[in-house]
Amino acid sequence: MGNALKITGLFKSFKSEFLRKNIEILKGISLSVEEGEIFGYLGPNGAGKTTTLKCILGLIFPDKGEIEILGLPYLSLKAKARIGFLPENPYFYDYLTASEFLRFYCQLHQIKKADIEEKTSTLLSLVGLEKSSSLQLRKFSKGMLQRIGLAQALLNEPELVLLDEPLGGLDPLGRKEIRDIIVRLKEEGKTVFLSSHILQDIEMVCDRVAIIVSGQIINQGRLHDLISQKILFTETTISGIKEEELKKYGECVSSYGGRTLIKITDEKKVEKILELVHTKKAKIHSLVPRTESLEDLFVGTVKQE
Amino acid sequence: MKITAIALNTFKEAIRDRILYLLLFFAVVSLIFSRLLAILAVGDRVKIIMDVGLASLSLFGALMAILMGTSLVFKEIDKKTIYTLLSKPIHRYQFLLGKFFGLILTLLVMLFFMSLIFIVIVLLHSGRIEWGMFAALAFIFLELCLITAVAMFFSCISSPILSSVFSLSFYLIGHLSWGLETLINKIKPGFGKTIVQVLYTLIPDLENFNFKTEIVHHLPVPPQVFLYATIYGIMYTLFVLTAAMLVFRKRDFV
Amino acid sequence: MKKKFLIILLILSCATFMGLKIKLDNIPRKTVPGSSFIYIPSGKFLKYATFGYSSLMADLIYVWSIQYFSDQKIPNRFDYLDHVFSIIAELDPRYFDPYQIGAIFAVYDARDFETCEKILNRGLEKNPGEWIFPFQAGHYAQMLLKDYKIAQKYFKKTMEIEGSPAMAKRLYANAAFEQTDYKTAMRNWVEVYQMAEAESDERVRKIAANHIYRTQASIDIESINEGLNKYKEQFGHYPEELSKLAASGFLAEIPRDLDGNEYKYDPETGEVKSELWWKR
Question: Which of A26, A77, A281, B196 could in theory staple to B89 by disulfide, Cβ–Cβ 3.0 to 4.6 A?
Answer without folding.
Answer: A77
